[in-house]
Specification:
GO terms for molecular function: hydrolase activity. Pfam families: HAD. This protein is 40% helix and 17% strand. It has eight helices and ten strands. The strands form three sheets. A six-stranded parallel beta sheet has the order 4-3-1-7-8-9, sandwiched between helices. A two-stranded antiparallel ribbon has the order 2-10. Strands 5-6 form a two-stranded antiparallel sheet. Helix 3 packs across helix 5. The radius of gyration is 17 Å and the shape is globular. The protein starts with 5 loop residues before the first strand and ends in an 8-residue tail after the last strand.
């Protein structure tokens, strides 16, 4: 029996050109004004900032957030520079080869699900938002899926799928993706992050340019 290799893709600035959490935050806040300016996702511990981000949705019906994610993605998709085309091409190539394609991100399921459906990705590894008995978000998550947690989540999936890490692939754009890239046999660096570029040059990793563009409406096969 042949086991399907797995191809893991970071999302922000790897598959899409923007930072989905920040873009969705601004889109959401325009519809749901708050009295105070939300904290920026810079300058503090990334895991705590990630948790703080999700707390802004406490009390929101989960179904409402899912609907908002689809609406946001529909608007974002029309941006002529929305996608990182070489990475999207790579994902399509893995699909054509029969590989399992997986999005790995600290972003929201509500934002990632329409993207995954659009690109035909098989799985999503992201933070799980807790929901109360009334179907409302508590504002808490199980744990942020950033940095080393991406690699841990990928390892669990590869083990469950029976895939050998040396047969698998990973794509990332930022030095925080390094643990994920190191967890597979074929890492690929998207864009020009200096830390990842240094590793790519030294270790012979694949490098893809961060060329941006739009996808046609009939992009998904």
């Amino acid at each position: 029996m042949t086991t399907r290799p797995v191809a893991f893709f970071d999302v922000d600035e790897t598959l899409i050109s923007g930072k989905s959490m920040l873009l969705f935050r601004d889109w959401w806040d325009a519809l749901h004004p708050r009295g105070e300016r939300p904290c920026a996702l810079e300058g503090k511990d990334r895991s705590e900032l990630n948790r703080a981000y999700y707390r802004r949705f406490a009390g929101v019906p989960a179904a409402e957030l899912q609907s908002a994610g689809r609406a946001w993605y529909g608007a974002y998709r029309s941006d002529p520079r929305a996608f990182v085309l070489p990475a999207v091409t790579a994902l399509r190539r893995h699909r054509a080869l029969g590989h399992l394609t997986v999005l790995v991100s600290g972003s929201l399921w509500a934002v990632l699900a329409p993207l995954a459906a659009d690109l035909g990705a098989d799985r999503i590894l992201c933070a799980s938002q807790r929901i109360d008995d009334d179907g409302r978000l508590t504002g808490e998550i199980v744990r942020p899926v950033i940095g080393p947690v991406k690699a841990e989540a990928a390892a669990v999936l590869m083990a469950a799928a029976g895939a050998a890490p040396e047969d698998c692939f990973a794509y990332g754009d930022h030095e925080s993706d390094l643990p994920l890239l190191r967890s597979v046999g074929t890492p690929a660096v998207v864009g020009g992050d200096p830390v990842l570029t240094q590793h790519a040059v030294r270790e012979g990793w694949l490098r893809l340019p961060a060329e941006t563009g739009a996808l046609p409406l009939a992009a998904v096969g």
